[in-house]
């Protein structure tokens, strides 16, 4: 089976999440905070734990358990996308309320970056299911999803403890954008390393790299995009129920369409004698 030690990488991302969000979430989890934070945190971490369980089970030849975890992903993935949309909605509400100078500057950029992450997740999950009969591709697409998640917690961790690591660091409100971009580029470098190690089966890492590079470019140059603030304000005016249903539907559609696309090829019909 491919990627023998991948569960260590996924586990490391879990640790980065705990470290990056310790001050702002885990240490104050019992305090007042939006429901969106809890949904996003729980679904993201459970997704990573599911990946670890799937990886270990298939390497231990526990195929039945691996299949059960695979079926569970059809339920979990739409909830994961729901969590992303809930965070976008909270950000949009804070932006419209002009809660602070920082959110007035960063809100639309965060929203756009999260939207890119959502599309990346759906694409990778769809392709993982479509290629479920090709083990290396299936595993690669699933294991690429933590890379999309990495930038947010690592950017915070880097800003708090190792700011010298960010060699493209900027000052002022754009500082957070430079942290996101640098974290994305770190994962692009890792993903492209995997791609060049096995280009025949490297499509997952190439796809993930494209999304992460797009996200890095977006957050870095978003301040130059005319009308971005107006678009985000217009999004905030959409009824929340509609956006939440859309998030769930996007996750469910990625799973359903991927499963259908990866079905066994139809057997040729024998010609009549």
From TrEMBL:
Q: Which domain of life is it from?
A: Bacteria
Residues annotated as transmembrane? 7-25, 37-58, 70-90, 110-129, 141-158, 178-197, 204-226, 232-257
Q: Which UniProt keywords apply?
A: Membrane, Transmembrane, Transmembrane helix
Q: What is this protein called?
A: Uncharacterized protein
């Amino acid at each position: 089976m491919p990627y023998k030690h991948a569960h260590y990488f996924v586990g490391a991302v879990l640790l980065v999440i705990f470290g990056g969000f310790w001050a702002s979430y885990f240490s104050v989890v019992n305090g007042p905070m939006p429901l969106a934070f809890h949904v996003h945190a729980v679904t993201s971490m459970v997704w990573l734990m599911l990946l670890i369980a799937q990886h270990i089970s298939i390497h231990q030849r526990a195929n039945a358990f691996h299949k059960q975890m695979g079926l569970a992903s059809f339920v979990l993935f739409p909830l994961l996308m729901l969590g992303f949309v809930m965070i976008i909605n909270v950000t949009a509400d804070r932006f419209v309320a002009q809660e602070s100078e920082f959110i007035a500057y960063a809100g639309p950029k965060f929203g756009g970056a999260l939207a890119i992450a959502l599309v990346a997740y759906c694409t990778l999950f769809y392709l993982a299911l479509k290629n479920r009969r090709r083990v290396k591709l299936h595993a690669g697409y699933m294991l690429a999803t933590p890379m999309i998640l990495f930038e947010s917690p690592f950017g915070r961790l880097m800003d708090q403890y190792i700011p010298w690591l960010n060699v493209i660091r900027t000052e002022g409100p754009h500082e957070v954008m430079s942290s996101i971009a640098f974290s994305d580029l770190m994962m692009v470098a890792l993903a492209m390393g995997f791609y060049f190690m096995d280009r025949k089966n490297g499509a997952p890492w190439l796809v993930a790299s494209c999304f992460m590079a797009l996200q890095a470019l977006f957050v870095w140059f978003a301040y130059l995009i005319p009308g971005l603030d107006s678009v985000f304000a217009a999004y905030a005016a959409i009824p929340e129920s509609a956006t939440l249903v859309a998030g769930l539907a996007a996750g469910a559609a990625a799973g359903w369409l991927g499963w259908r696309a990866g079905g066994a090829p139809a057997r040729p019909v024998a010609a009549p004698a």
